[in-house]
UniProtKB/TrEMBL annotation:
This is Transposase. InterPro entries: Transp_IS110-like_N, Transpos_IS110. Pfam families: DEDD_Tnp_IS110 (PF01548). Residues 1-57 are annotated as: Disordered. It comes from the Bacteria. Residues 38-50 have a biased composition (Polar residues). One of its GO terms (biological process) is DNA transposition. Residues 10-29 have a biased composition (Basic and acidic residues).
Length: 200
């Protein structure tokens, strides 16, 4: 009998030995091995929704703040914050209203708020005191030595923060509303005296 050449059941080699089908033998052998089990899903088996706990979030960076430097401007405030070791841990831009809300957050730690004494700095100083913070007004000439070569708002805020760390830095006192009103009256009086002297 001639050999057809195709392996199958009962096929034999021309000499008389059975032809081996390796794929069929492997399939037969694997049938007796333990099969991997699918992971059990309670939601699929019972139809119940299962809530998994999320990993805890790390603490917000503003909780480490002990001191911030604020570059005040008309519409946006740039803030840089330091931790107790003097490392920068916070850097953010605020609008006027969002900065006011942020300073009033109850979870915000009590800290030093350093600013340059511009037009609205006295009001912000009083507001910081009302929220439990410690305002510090630093004259621009005291901040200039700490300014970086590349001037921008965040670098200015960081320079204010650095200047507030120096014990010899001169501070401008925060005035009460009554003191601010008196200062306006004195400034107006001084202007009138200058005009009268010029006309005499």
């Amino acid at each position: 009998m001639e050999w057809s050449g195709g392996p199958g059941v009962g096929d034999r080699h021309p000499i008389g030995y059975p032809v081996r089908d390796k794929k069929r033998e492997e399939k037969h052998r694997n049938a007796f091995l333990p099969q991997p089990q699918k992971p059990f899903s309670l939601s699929k088996e019972t139809g119940m929704s299962v809530k998994t706990s999320k990993p805890p979030k790390s603490s917000p960076e503003f909780l480490l703040l002990v001191r911030i430097g604020v570059d005040l401007s008309k519409d946006t405030f740039h803030v840089v914050g330091l931790d107790e070791k003097g490392h920068r841990v916070f850097r953010k831009k605020f609008t006027r209203e969002s900065f006011k809300t942020w300073l009033g957050r109850p979870e915000l730690p009590r800290m030093t708020v350093a600013m340059e004494p511009c037009g609205g700095a006295q009001w912000w100083g009083s507001y910081c005191q009302a929220q439990g913070h410690v305002p510090m007004l630093i004259p621009p000439h005291q901040v200039k030595p700490f300014a970086m070569s590349q001037k921008n708002d965040f670098n200015e805020a960081e320079a204010i923060c650095e200047a507030s760390l120096r014990p010899r830095t001169t501070k401008v006192p925060v005035k009460t509303p009554q003191q601010q009103d008196l200062a306006m009256v004195l400034a107006a009086r001084s202007g009138i005296i200058k005009e009268r002297t010029a006309l005499a």
